[in-house]
Amino acid sequence: MAYRQNTKPDQGTSRGPCHFYARGLCSKGNACQFAHEGHGNPSTSRPSSSGKLPCRFFAAGHCARGDSCFYAHDKPPKLPESPKPSTSGNPLPVPPPPVDSRAQIPCQFFARGACRSGAACPFAHSETEFKPEDGKEDAEQVVEEHAFKEEPSHDDWSRELAGALAHFDDGAVVAKISCHSDFSAIRLSNLPEASSPASVAALFAGMAVTVSAENVRVVPHPESATCSADITVEDPTFAATACTKLRAGAAGSHVEAVPIPVPTPRGSSLHRVDRRRLHCSWHRPTRAVWLNFRSENMARKVYDKFNAGTYKILDRTVKANPPKGKTNARNPSAWTVMARNPPAWTVMLTDVPGTTTEGDIYQAIPEFNCPRSVAMTKPTYDLGVDLAAMAVKAMLSRFGPLEWWEVSNNNKGKRIKAQARFFEEAHARDAASALNNKLLPFSATTKLTTQLMTTAKFKVSTRIYLALSERIGLQTLIWEGQCLHFVAYPPHNGYRVLKLEGEDSAKLAQAKKTLDHIVGGEVATKDGKDLWNASFGRNGEGYQSLKQVEQDYGVVIVRDRRKSQLRLYGPEASNRRATKALELLLRNVVSDSHVIELDSDGFRWACKGGFKALASHLGGNKATFDIASTPKRILIEGSKADLTAAMAIVAAKQTGPITPTPDTDTDTACSVCWNEADEPVRTSCNHVYCADCFLNLCQAPSSGTTAFRISCFGDLGRCEKTLPLAELQDLLSSATFEAVLEASFASHVRRHPANFRYCPTPDCDQVYRASTPSGASAAAAATFTCTKCLAATCTACHSAHPGISCAEHKDIVSGGYEALERIKKELGVKDCPGCKTAIEKTYGCNHMTCPGCRTHICWVCMATFGAGQACYDHMSREHGDWV
Length: 883
Hints:
This protein is of the alpha+beta class. It has 22 helices and 39 strands.
C-alpha cells in the first residue's frame, strides 16, 4: 500500500489553483504561491463585472454548481439582429448565433424513434443509439449504457420453412431443400479436454469418413477434464457408418460414439427471434483510497461532496465511507500533545478507477478541503481494456465460434461491456450458463457477468414507422418496465430496423407479438367486409383519392392488391377516422377497370410510343401499362366510353403511324406501369419502379407455374437481370422479404411433387422428402412422422399403413384383401401365426407344420409350439383328440 505524508504535489512553482484569485479576492498578486487560474484559461479569461472569472461550464449551459459556483454566471451579450453596413460599403460579418447547449445532448425520444418535435427539437437527433447513463449500481442495473452500434447483419440465405431447411439463391430461387430425414447425428464422449472441431474432423478423416469442422459442436466438461462432441451430417447413413468405423478403429481408446436424434436445422432470418447473443460485462480495475484530515468537520464535508457526486475522480463518481476518527496521542486530554499531533479523521473511497494517481486525487478536491495525506491500494488488476476484452473473447470462443464481437466504446461506466453473437444458439446458451459469475483469469476478485439475450428484429418502411411512432412510443414505456430494451436504428434506403431485446424470453415473445400487431397495420373493413375498389389498385384517380385521405388524417395507406385490401398505419383514433373517410369515398366511386391484352405486335406498338399516345388521349391517368404480366396488358380505369376509345386506338396501330417517344423520362418513370414513379425504388441495374409496382413484381412469380425467379423488367423488359438476394432484402421490408422466400419455397415444393410432399393432415404445413422404393425395398418404405401433428405417413405411397407394405395397403384399400379373406375362409386356408404363410389342410390330424418357418401349429386354435410332441400334448389336453 502506497502511503504519503505530504501535501498536494507541486505543480511547477505553485501548489495548486488559488481559489481566492478565482473569486477575484487574492491580495497577494504575483507573490501568491498558488496558481492564478480558474474554470477558464487564465491567459485569456478576464474577471467579470463582479470581479470573478467567467464560468466556462455555465457558458456551455451545464454548470452543475448553480448559484454556489465560485465563478461568474454572466449572461452572454445579446447579438444584434442584423449587421450594420460598413463605411466601405461591404457588409460586416454576421456574428454566429448563440449555441444551445441542449444540442449536445442526445434526444432519447429520437433514439427510440418516438420524438414528436421533429426538426424543432432542441436536443441532438444523432445517428447513435440512445442509452441511459450508467447508474449507481451496475450489477443490478436494468438498463445499462452500451454505446454499441447496430451489429452487422449476417444472412446465409437459409430459412427453416415447413420443417425443412431451404437454401436460397439470387432472385429468391430455391437452391436446395434439406429435410430432417436427410441428416443423421452422433455424440462422442470422453474426448481429450483440448479437442476442437478441427481435431474431431481429423479423427474421422483418418477413417475415410468425411466430416466438416463446421458440423462439429464441442462441449467442454471442466469437472472431468474431458469434452464431448455432437456431429450432424447431411447423410442419413452417416451415424451407422461412423459408429461402426469408430468402434473398429479405436481399440484401446475410451472414446464412445452413439447415435442421437438429429437437431432441428436452423436457418437465419432478420424477422425472427434470435437467442444467440450474449451481453458480457466486468468491472474496470479499481482501487481503494484513504483520505486523512486534521478535523472531523473537513472530513465530513469531503465525504458529503463525494457521495453527492460533486467531487469526482477522473470524471467518475466514487463511493465514500463515513469518516472515522483516530488519535495518535496516548493521553488525548493533554492539550500539549493534541496541539502537536491532532486527531486524524479518515475517509475511505471505494470504486476508485485503477489508473488513479495521487495527483488525480488532489485535482478532484479543492485546496480548502485538501487532505493532509493520501494512501492507496494496488488496482484489482493491471490489464488494459483491449487485453482484458481479448481474454474474455477467448473464454467465449471455447464454447463455439463467434459470428460477431464488439466492445463498448463508453469509457465512463464502472463496467466494461461487450456483446458477442454465436453462430449456434446452443453455444451461446452453454457459454452463458458456464461463465456467469466466473472469475476472470487476470484478476483474483473480478467476475464476469453474462446474460443470454433474446432478440427480435423488424424492418419496416420509414414512413410507416413515422406513422406508428406514437403507438410504439407508448409501448416502449411498458417494455422498459419489463426490462426489455427497444431500439429504432437510423433510416436506410427508406426503411428502419427495429430491435427488441431482453433476458426474459417469455416477456420478449409477448412484446414481439404486440409489435407484430402494430407494424402489421389494420385492414380497413366495414361490417366484416374489406373496403376495396378495383380503382384503388391503379395509379389513377382512385389512388390519388387514397393519397388525399392519408394527408387529411395523418395515416399511411398501403394497397395489398393480391388480397384486395387497404392497410392503415397510424394512431388508432386516426385509423378509425380514415376508415370512415374510405367508406364515404367508396360510395362516390363510380369507376370500372378494364383490361386490353396485347399480342407481340401490340406490345411493340405500345413500346414505340403507342401507349403514350393512348394515355395522352384519355388523360387523367386512366391508362396503365403493365409489362410485368403475361401477356402484356394495358389497364383502363374509366367508363365504357374510355374503353371503346382505347380499343379503337389499339386497333388502329397498324394504320396510324406512331412517332417513337424519346427516352427523356426514363430516370423517373416506373419500369412496370410507365407512370411517374410513386415512392421510387431504384435497382442496382439503375431501373426505377413505384414502390407498389416493385412489390407486385416480387410477388408475381408465386402465382405462376414456371420456376420462381425475380428479375428486373427495366428497359422494356429486356434487362432480365436476376436481382441479388442482398438487394431484395435491402429494398423490401423484412415481412415482405420473408413472404417472398416462403412463396418461392411453396412454389418449388408444388412444382416437384416427386421429391417433396406436404403432410396429409389438414391444416398441417410440414414438408417431407418423397421416396420411390421398388422391388424388395417396397415392403420397407420409409415412414415420415410429422413433428408438428405426429401423424405417420409412408414417404412412397403417402398414406398411413403402419406394419404393412405399400402393396398390402393398396390391396386393402382397393377391396382385394377382403375378397382374398373371403375365399380363404371358404377353402379352409389359414395364415401361419408367425410368418403369415397361407396353409391349407387337406388330410391328416390337426397338428400342422408351417412350410415357411417350420412352426408347429394346432389347427383347431392356431396355438404355436416349438416341438411336435408339445403340440400333441396340447391337443390331447385341450381338445381331447388329435383329429
